[in-house]
Amino acid sequence: MIVHLVDGTYELFRHYYAVPERAPGGPRPSPEPGGVTGPSSGAVPSDVGAARGVVENLVRLLEGGATHVGVATDQVIESFRNDLWAGYKTGAGIDPTLFAQFGVLEDALAAFGFTVWAMVEFEADDALAAAAAVADGDERVDQAQILTPDKDLAQCVRGDRVVQVDRRKSLVMDDAGVVVRYGVPPASIPDYLALVGDSADGFPGLPGFGAKSAAAVLGRYGHLEHIPAAPGQWDVPGLRGAAKLAATLQAGMADALLFRTLARLDTTGPAVGTVDDWCWRGPTAAAEAWATYLDLPNLAVRTRRRGIDLPGAKVMVNTGLEASGLIEQADEQRIAELVAVNLVAPQRLVR
Ligand SMILES: [Mn+2]
Description:
Low-confidence stretches: 310-351
Oligomer: single chain
Number of strands: 6
Shape: elongated
Number of helices: 14
CATH architecture of the domain at 2-121: 3-Layer(aba) Sandwich
CATH class of the domain at 2-121: Alpha Beta
Distance between the termini: 23 Å
Radius of gyration: 22 Å
Strand order of the largest sheet: 3-2-1-4-5-6
Mean pLDDT: 84
Bound molecules: manganese (II) ion
Order of helices and strands: EHHEHHEHEEEHHHHHHHHH
Structural class: alpha/beta
């Protein structure tokens, strides 16, 4: 089976800025019992266009054959990393019209039957990393696709089993693709980001280190602590200004290690469940109300149709028995088997 791990925060930003279609907001349907309800859920957004775009987009992912989908969001932008570094990104600069749509998106996706990881203490990136690790450890999984262009997630790529997908550019990056793109393998990505910095996340890196020099040094030594302290010991052919870089690194090693901690994703913290939990089993009874609210009248029909495509699933989808807990264990098992069939052709690897 193929598992799709979606960066919901990225998708919401992308739809807000790149697909600026507006849709009236207002008081919205109550979340499913057990649905996602967080701080941002209280806000009544004046516009739900971005949330609507993401929901529609992910229903299209199902229509394309996706069976196991998890969506990670930042319910709170601040995370444990803000306690480690004062400059780390916060939610302060986020357009309130965009921010108010996080809760809408989380609740709507849950109503349409998607697994949602709404992060508070951790970041959406951590949830994606944790889910990728779970998927990697499950031998039934042929491939986990992390759908985000965020360079942080390159550290999670494993062979061609865990890959990063930029859907907008139709790029799939496997292990070798990470080396081509960054000059270092996935395991060295946190070290790489520590040296070059990450302006989106809010840490500067070390002065003088750019993509080329960081890749050259880490391509040779792998990790920060393996880089020789004395410049005379550096064995990095063709690297210009090695002496100065070595001095910078020696002086800034403590900062670099802290930045690496910031860049390293936490694969064990977020509770993401198991691969079986991510299996899409049809929309909930609340889907109709959410489709109306998002002004996507056909969406509930489309998800239902998608459910009917899978024999057995229609029972659940049409009667809402799933919500009432009346589905027998045997049916659950059967449906899981049916949807476990890999419906997605492996995508072409582009480097
Ligand atoms: Mn990130």
